[in-house]
Amino acid sequence: MAPLRKRSVVDGAAVVILVLIVAAVAAAPWLAPFPPDDQNLAARLAPPSATHWLGTDHLGRDTLSRLLDGGRFSLVVAALATVLTGIIGLVVGVLSARRKGWVDELFTRTNDVLLALPEMVVALFIVAAMGTGFTSLLVALTVTGWTPFARLARTLAYDVSARGFVEAARVVGCSPSFIVFRHIIPHLAAPMLGQATLRFGQLLISVGALSYLGLGVQPPQSDWGSMVAAAQPYAERAPWGIIAPGLTIFLVALCVTLIGQRTSRRAADPVDVLVVEGRHA
């Protein structure tokens, strides 16, 4: 019981931290103490103080203000990429499992090809071809990120399709689309949600990595990855410029991953979780 209580406390803390960060980023225009692009060369590389809680960067811009402002880009791109890859993966996986034949063969071969290529290399190629910016990042992450969802959806759809209630629905004359939307997709919802929360953290790190390489937003707009890159030359003199965005990326990815693991555990055996946690009636 003690390990389970400890795990529940950790999961609860992850939810609280994530909510606070997301709320702060959403309220950036009202919470930011300074305009994110307001330069003050007289205060460049200033350490954390009562005026600048997280210090300033090499142009004297307030780090906290830029952290809150840049978080909107990082979180929105990662969230949209997660939603798009989840939808594409769900459609492809269910279609592959239901149609079988050449459709399933095409999915399997496409999946094998994408798995053989490093995601970041493919993403770099797509962004380089399309140019930097929001759209190219979103396309790159979507193209490279749908296969885990599709594999999971295909496996689960095969399993659900073999169950008696699906066969009974087919026998009584239910249409294939009705069976998919009424009997198959609802059984995939919880596992796919768990996969999405786990995938979000990976996509957020990918957004930061691409922005760090200069393939994300362009100055003067900021995001967490570009903040790390801009602060790197001054790491010894002003380490807070790297610590603040780097730690934020780490915390968000960690919190979402912990929440995703809990969601996956519940999806795997919800009755057992409720009994162990003492919530069984």
Automatic annotation (TrEMBL):
Top-level taxonomy: Bacteria, Bacillati, Actinomycetota, Actinomycetes, Micrococcales
Bilayer-crossing residues are 12-32, 73-95, 116-144, 238-259
| Gene3D superfamilies per UniProt | MetI-like
The lineage's top-level taxon is: Bacteria
User: Pfam families recorded for this chain?
Assistant: BPD_transp_1, OppC_N
Q: How does it sit in the membrane?
A: Multi-pass membrane protein
Q: Entry's InterPro entries?
A: BP-dependent_transpt_permease, MetI-like, MetI-like_sf, OppC_N
Annotated keywords: Cell membrane, Membrane, Transmembrane, Transmembrane helix, Transport
Instruction: Report the sequence similarity comment from the record.
Output: Belongs to the binding-protein-dependent transport system permease family.
What is the protein's name according to its record? Peptide/nickel transport system permease protein
Outline the extent of the ABC transmembrane type-1 domain: 71-260
Q: Where in the cell is it found?
A: Cell membrane
